[in-house]
Amino acid sequence: MNTSADLLKELRIDRKAPPPAPPSRRGLGITLGVVVVLLALAATGWAVFGREKPLEVRTAPTVALGNNAASASVLDASGYVVARRMATVSAKVTGKVQEVLIEEGMRVEAGQVLARLEPIDADADRALSQSQLQAARSQTTGVQAQLVEAEANARRLSSLVAQQLVSKAQYDQAVAQRDLLRAQVQTAQRNERTAADRLKIADIGLDNTIVRAPFAGVVIAKAAQPGEIVSPLSAGGGFTRTGIGTIVDMESLEVEVEVNESFIGRVQPKMPIQATLNAYPDWQIPGEVIAIIPTADRSKATVKVRVALGVKDPRIVPDMGVRVSFLEAAKPQLAEQPKGVRVPGAGVVERDGAQVAFVVGDDDTVQQRSLKVAGKLGDDVHVTDGLQAGETVVLDPPAELKDGAKVVLAEDAE
Fold first, then answer.
1. What does the record list as coiled-coil region(s) (predicted)?
2. DSSP characters over 148-173
3. Is 210 exposed, middle or buried (CB count within 10 Å of its CB: 0-12, 13-18, 19+)?
4. Are residues 308 and 173 both part of a single domain?
5. CB of 254 within 8 A of CB of 84?
6. What CATH number should be reported for the domain holding residue 268?
7. How far apart, in Å, are the Cα atoms of 398 and each of 94, 95, 342, 402?
8. Most-buried pick from 152, 241, 294, 372 (CB within 10 A)?
9. How many CB atoms lie within 10 A of CB 116?
10. Whole domain around residue 131: which residue ranges?
11. Do 200 and 125 share a domain, yes or no?
12. How many alpha carbons lie under 13 Å from residue 54 in its C-beta half-sphere?
C-alpha cells in the first residue's frame, strides 16, 4: 500500500514549480547572423559565377572626314626665335654708376629711366657755363649803356657843329666812339648767345648721365651695378662695363631658319608656314614667310629665311629652338568635302541583315549602332550616319557580343 501511495504522489503535478525558461535572444541573434552570411555568400557566388564574364575586345577611334589640312608641308627646316629690336643700353659718357633701376624680366616703356651715373663733373661744367652766361649778359648790359651815352653825345655835337660852336674834329671823334660801342654791343651779344649755347651743351652733358630706354620692351639682362664704371667705348679695359642692360621688344619676335640651298626654290614670300617650338611640341603656331635673305652661307650651303609668327604669346622668347614646316598655298575646293567618319573595316559587321558597329561607352558598356555606309576607303569604311568622330568602336566583335554587354580592352586584360 505504501508503495502504491508513493507512486500516486509522483504522478501529481506540482503547481508551485517555476515554468521552463524561454529560448535566449543571444541564440536567436546567432541564428539570424548565420542566415545573413549564407545569403551574402550566395549573392557573391551568383555575381561571380552566375553573371557572364566581360568579353575581351580590341577597339579603335573613328576619324572625321573633310577635316584634312588645306595645305601640305613641302619643306621642313630648323631655326631660332630672334628679335628684330634688341639693344644693349649704355650711357653716352664714361662715368661711375650711381643707381640701377632695372631687373631681369622687368617691362619698361620708351624713355623710362634705367640708371643714373654720378653727375659731379656734369654739374660742375653746367655751373661754369651758367656763370659764363651771366658774365656775358653783364658785359652786354654795360656796353649798351655806354652806347646810349655815345649816341646822345653824337646827336648833341651834330647840332653844335652845324652852328660852328664846336670843331668838326670833336664831332668826328664822337661819331667814331658811337660806332665803336655799337660794334662792341654786337660782339657782347654774340658772346652772350655763345654762352647760352654752351649752357645748353652742359645741360645735355648732365642729361647724358641718365640712361633711358630707347623703346618699350622687356629687360633680359642686367649688366652693371652701382659703383662700377661704364663707358660706351670700354675705355677701362676688362674692368669697365659697356652697358647697363639688354632690352628686347617682344612685339618684334620672328623666326630665322636656314634652308638648304638645294630646296630654297620651294620657299616663296608670303608662303604659309606652321612653326613648332621645341619647348612646346604640341603647340602649332601659324605664320608666313617675310623674306628670303638674298645671300648664301658657303660653309653650310644654306640660305636664311625670315618667318613671321601669327601669334603673340609670352611663352615665345628669343633664342628658342623652332621647327618650321613650309606649307603649300590652300587650293580652291572643286567639290564639297565628304561628310561622315572613317571607320576601320574590322569595326563594321552585319547583324540581322544590317551593318552595325558596337560603340564603347564610358562605363565599358557597348551600344549597338545601325550604320549608313557610303563605301570603302581602302581598308576603312566611309560611314555617313550612325557614328560621330572620336567615338570608339569594337574591332572584330564576337558573335556573342550584344547591345549593353560589358567589355574589357585587350591591353587592360593583360
1. none
2. HHHHHHHHHHHHHHHTTSS-HHHHHH
3. middle
4. no
5. yes
6. 2.40.30.170
7. 86, 86, 21, 9
8. 241
9. 18
10. 120-205
11. yes
12. 16
The answer as to whether 167 is a domain residue is yes
Distance of alpha carbon 372 from alpha carbon 354, whole angstroms: 9
* Average pLDDT of the chain, as a whole number: 83
**94 and 234 inside one domain:** yes
In a domain, residue 21? The reply is no
Whether the model pTM is above 0.90: no
Query: Do residues 181 and 173 make contact, with C-beta atoms less than 8 angstroms apart?
Result: no
Cβ 295 vs Cβ 345: under 8 Å: no
**What are the grid coordinates assigned to 288, written together?**
608666313
- The amino acid that residue 3 corresponds to is T
CA–CA distances in Å: residue 231 to residues 98, 238, 308: 14, 11, 36
Segment 115-151, tens digit of pLDDT: 999 999 899 999 999 999 999 999 999 999 999 988 8
- C-alpha distance across the termini of the chain, in Å: 94
Q: From the CB of residue 156, how many other CB atoms can be counted at a distance below 10 Å?
A: 13
Helix 168-207 and helix 120-162: axis angle, to 10°?
160
Contact 272, 71 (CB under 8 A): yes
Type of residue numbered 384? T
- Could you say which of 143, 172, 205 is where a domain stops? 205
Collapse the DSSP code of 229 into the 3-class scheme (helix H, G, I; strand E, B; otherwise coil) and give the result.
strand
